[in-house]
Design goal:
The structure holds 2 protein chains of 2 kinds. By secondary structure, chain A is an alpha/beta fold. Chain A is 32% helix and 30% strand. The longest helix of chain A has 15 residues. Classes of the chains: A alpha/beta, B alpha+beta. Chain A: This is ATP phosphoribosyltransferase.
Chain lengths: 232, 361
């Protein structure tokens, strides 16, 4: 048996993950042809590399099909109910930063906080006869955040892309999305609600609580953690 | 948990019992149009109900409760007064507590009667009390009508009263607003800038989306008016706190409520309705000195209860309530398309009942 490490299979996230491990003496690489999702691990014994889409890594961790996985902290929270019972955050990796924020039209000069959003939602529903629409793909994170903030009279509408354009297109009144610089929001005449982001996401190394951890696997993990200088 | 066949048999027994009280047995579809439920309950129901789609009916939900379809059916074709009973499964996701079952039986009893609400409340409660007797359950009750009357009677603007009423079922948010309206906490970030001048000064972004400039200006005017509104008197806030914090038996609380009503006359009518219900309960053989009252009971359940509310619990944290119910007059107004009728009802969960009976045997 070996410890299965799931990492993103392509793009900058994969490269940065490889760099992060390499800096700590663990060399990850893709093997075979460009199209083949196979990988190799050098510098430590007993670890098998599994290349996956970043979006699938939370589910694989929760199912225990991989022992360790690198993915965005936002994806774990969004895709897994009770995520803390299924995975452990071993180490934030310092890249892939993005904030999940709620944004409204900049012309809404009367709106600064989530408190204002709630009041506007009440008035909007009275006036227009339906609940204020917030376009997002982060349904769980946003719903939990708005519930905790006591916001009522809203509805989430699913948007898997070009979310910032939904307000102008009048398919939503507000949006909730990931942003790193806020540039796209500004270009679409939107502003972020104050009070901090809903979630500050970054690439994170997770450990599965559901995977089968044999005594050998645990020794491999201890060795890996020592190399990566992970305390917890 | 008991076998499904046993649960089904227990549900059938309860259904027959309720039918014997003069209720008509009704059936409702398991697939409900999602739109009605979403409009009523908001986004939270999407997190709790199973949503599916049908090529013809569009987005649909597996029935998360019976109340909505039964009310809709009554408003469409029911004669008055009416008593209904039903038994069947409801479906709720249990993401936060995976040990709870996501599909379970409910057996319900609902009364639509505009003649004597106190008697109808007592009829439903007494029936449940009798049906569940001998199991060592604790019965707790509350009265959302008292809280609504208290909020409606606060010395402040309509707008503030409406904001508080809207969040009566979200205790934390209610507290934040009440503290703000009472001048106990500073006004939120961004309000100062709206106090004077033209807030659109220097705004280079266009007004986009359905919410137009008139709506934004309307809210600014409302916020300015609100900034000039004096705080809700401290005494009223304290009385409201007393009311929400009440925990006594039904007979003791009646006296206490009359004391509060001296300083808070707005709740007088609601207190008299409360007293009338106690009398009606006695007539039905329920002793008010054995039933608990909690001022805030019902504030964290689904927000359609607006009067008497009740629950029967075993003294076990691993089990949900055996039975819950209450009055939902406003729901009939929302679903009635201009018509309304006072309504009260409740449900029993037969598998919880069997579990408790089994544990006691």
């Amino acid at each position: 048996m070996s410890v299965k490490l799931g990492v993103p299979s392509k793009g900058r996230l994969m490269e940065k993950t490889f760099d992060w491990f390499a800096d700590r003496g663990v060399k990850l690489s893709r093997t075979g042809s460009d199209r083949e999702y196979a990988g190799a691990v050098e510098g430590i014994e007993g670890i098998e590399l599994v290349l996956l889409s970043a979006g699938e890594i939370p589910r694989e961790l929760a199912a225990g099909r991989i022992h360790l996985g690198v993915t965005g902290s936002d994806l774990v929270r969004e895709k897994l109910a009770l995520w803390e019972e299924k995975v452990v955050e071993l180490e934030p990796m310092g890249f892939g930063h993005a904030d999940l924020v709620i944004a409204v039209p900049r012309a809404w000069v009367d709106v600064t906080t989530i408190d204002d959003l709630d009041a506007v939602a009440a008035a909007f529903r009275r006036r227009h006869g339906f609940r204020l629409r917030i376009a997002t793909k982060y349904h769980r994170l946003i719903r939990d955040y708005l519930r905790a903030g006591g916001v009522a009279d809203y509805q989430l509408v699913d948007s898997q892309g070009a979310t910032e354009g939904t307000v102008k297109n009048e398919t939503a009144e507000a949006i909730a999305d990931i942003t790193s610089t806020g540039e796209t929001l500004r270009a679409n005449h939107l502003k972020i609600l104050s009070g901090g982001p809903v979630h500050r996401s970054q690439a994170t190394l997770f450990k599965s609580r559901q995977a089968d951890w044999t005594p050998e696997d645990r020794m491999v993990l201890a060795h890996l953690k020592a190399m990566l200088q992970i305390e917890r | 948990m008991a076998e499904k066949a046993a649960i089904r048999a227990e549900a059938a027994r309860l259904l027959t019992l309720f039918e014997g009280q003069g209720a008509s047995v009704v059936e409702t579809p398991i697939l409900q149009p999602a739109e009605t439920l979403l409009d009523l309950y908001g986004e939270d129901i999407r997190a709790r109900a199973y949503v599916t789609s049908d090529p013809a009916m569009g987005e649909a939900m597996l029935r998360p409760d019976f109340t909505v379809p039964v009310v809709e059916m009554h408003m469409a074709e029911g004669a008055e007064p009416a008593r209904y009973t039903y038994a069947g499964e409801v479906f709720r996701k249990q993401e936060d507590d995976p040990h709870r079952t996501p599909e379970y039986f409910q057996v319900g009893y609902e009364v639509f009667d505009r003649e004597d609400p106190a008697a109808a409340d007592a009829e439903v409660f007494a029936l449940f009390h009798e049906t569940l007797s001998g199991l060592g359950l604790r019965a707790a009750t509350g009265d959302m009508g008292l809280l609504m009357a208290a909020v409606a009677g606060l010395t402040t603007t309509d707008r503030r009263r409406r904001a508080l009423m809207r969040h009566l079922w979200r205790p934390r948010r209610f507290r934040v607003l009440l503290d703000r309206f009472a001048g106990r906490t500073p006004s939120p970030e961004g309000r100062e800038a709206l106090a004077k001048g033209d807030p659109f000064d220097g705004m280079d972004a266009p007004v986009i989306g359905l919410r137009d400039r008139a709506e934004i200006e309307e809210r600014i005017a409302a916020l300015r008016e609100d900034m000039a509104t004096p705080p809700i008197p401290e005494g009223e806030v304290e009385l409201l706190g007393d009311l929400m914090g009440l925990r006594e038996t039904l007979d003791n609380v009646c006296e206490h409520l009359r004391d509060i009503a001296v300083d808070m006359p707005a709740i007088s009518d609601a207190v008299e309705r409360f007293a009338a219900r106690n009398e009606a309960l006695k007539k039905r053989g329920v002793d008010p000195s054995e039933i608990d009252f909690e001022g805030s009971f019902g504030r964290t359940t689904l927000e359609y209860y607006d009067g008497f509310v009740f629950g029967f619990h075993a003294d076990r944290h691993d089990l949900p309530p055996v039975a819950t119910g209450g009055r939902y007059d406003a729901l009939t107004r929302v679903l009635g398309g201009g018509r309304e009728i006072p309504a009260v009802g409740g449900v029993i969960r037969p598998e919880v009942l069997l579990e408790i009976r089994g544990a006691g045997a």
